[in-house]
From TrEMBL:
<dbReference type="InterPro" id="IPR029058">
    <property type="entry name" value="AB_hydrolase_fold"/>
</dbReference>
<protein>
    <recommendedName>
        <fullName>Xaa-Pro dipeptidyl-peptidase-like domain-containing protein</fullName>
    </recommendedName>
</protein>
<dbReference type="Pfam" id="PF02129">
    <property type="entry name" value="Peptidase_S15"/>
</dbReference>
<dbReference type="GO" id="GO:0052689">
    <property type="term" value="F:carboxylic ester hydrolase activity"/>
</dbReference>
<dbReference type="InterPro" id="IPR000383">
    <property type="entry name" value="Xaa-Pro-like_dom"/>
</dbReference>
<feature type="domain" description="Xaa-Pro dipeptidyl-peptidase-like">
    <location>
        <begin position="51"/>
        <end position="347"/>
    </location>
</feature>
<feature type="signal peptide">
    <location>
        <begin position="1"/>
        <end position="21"/>
    </location>
</feature>
<keyword id="KW-0732">Signal</keyword>
<dbReference type="InterPro" id="IPR053145">
    <property type="entry name" value="AB_hydrolase_Est10"/>
</dbReference>
Amino acid sequence: MSLFRLALLGGWLLLAPVVQASSIPQAPPVAHSSLYSAEEVTFTNGVDKLQLAGTLTVPKGAGPFPAVVLLSDMGTQNRDGAVNGYAPLQVLAEYLSEQGVVVLRFDDRGVGKSEGDNNSASTLDRVKDAQAAVAYLRTRPEVNTSRIGVIGHGEGGNVGLLAAAQALPPAFVVALAASGQVGREMLANKQATLRMIPAPDTMYTLGRRQQMAQKAMEQQMANMRASGANAMQLEKALNQHQLQQKTEAQAKLAKALSREQSMLEIVRQNPDNLQVQAILANMMRQDDALLELSRARAIAARRTTPWYRSYLNFDPQQYLGNVKCPVLLMQGLDDEEVAPTNLALLEKGLKANRTVTVQRFEGVNHSFQAPESYWPMVDNVPKPIFSYVVLTSIRDWVQKK
C-alpha cells in the first residue's frame, strides 16, 4: 500500500479568483505495485563531479510518460523530505506515479547515498543538481523528453525557477511556497515569525493555535454572560480584546524582526565564523534565558555555513524575468515560514510570462499539510498528511503540460 493511500484527506482550496472545495475528494485504496514500479538510481552532476542517488517511480503501462524531478526545501533533506515521520516528497512521488507521471526524487548532497556536502552547497549549486536530474530523465526510454518538469518545495521551488531561466530548461515548473524576497529578508521574516510562537505551542500548526485561541475567547464570553453581561457589553469586550491582541502582536513582531535583522547583518559583515557564532549564541541566550548554551551554539553554527552565507544575498528577482516555460505557483495561507505575500513578488517577477498560474490554499501550511481537522488518528495521536486537494491540483495541471 503506498504512503499516499494511507493519507487520503481533504482540504479547502482557494484559487485566484477564490474557489473553495465543497467536499473531500476520496479515492479507493489501490496497491502501488499494480500502478507503478520503483527503482533505485544514481546519476552524475558532471559539473561538480559528484554522484547523486534517488528513487525513480515509473507508471505501469505503455509510455512514454510525462516526468518530474522533485526538489527539496532548504536544509538537510533526504529523497522523501522526511521530518518527524511526515514524508511529503514520497507521498507526492507515489501519487503522481499512480496518476501516470514518472517521478525522480533524490537525496540532497551529503545525505543518504548522495555525495557532496549539503552545508557548503549554494542555491546555484543545487540548480546544477536539478539540471543533472533533468538530464538523467532525458536518458530514460519511459520518459517523454518534451514533457519533463520540476516540482520544488520552498528553496527547491526557487531552484526549479532558476533552472528554468538557464539553457536547456525544464518544460514546466511547479513552485510550492517559493520565496520572492532576497534571502536575508525571507530568513529574517521567517525567523522572527517562528520566534513569536510560545514554546508550549511550537508543536501546533497555525490553524490549531487559532482554534485554541477561539475556544479560549468563547469561554471568556461564556463567563461574561454568566456574570450578567449583555450583548453590547460582550461585543465591546470582544472588539477591545481583538484590537489589543493585534496591537501587541504587531509590536512583538516588529521587535523580533529588528533583532533577527541585526543578527543577519552580523553574519553578513563578519567573515570570522567562530566570532560570529559566539556573538549570535550570546544574543539568543539574552533573548531566551531558557535556551541551553549547546542549543544556541548549534543554531549559530548553522547560520554561518557557506550555504547560509550565500543565501543571504540570493535574489530571486534577478532571474524570474528569464523564465519562459509554464509555471504553477502554489502557497498555503497558513504558511509561517514563507509568507503568502511572496506570491505577489513572484508574480511581479514573472509578469512577462503569460503562462503563470497561481493557487492559494486555505488552511494549508508550509509543509502542504491538510488542515488538522482532517488528520487521521494513529495510536490516539493526530498524524499530519499531505493535502489531497493540493495533490489533485498538481496532477491536473501537470497532466495538461
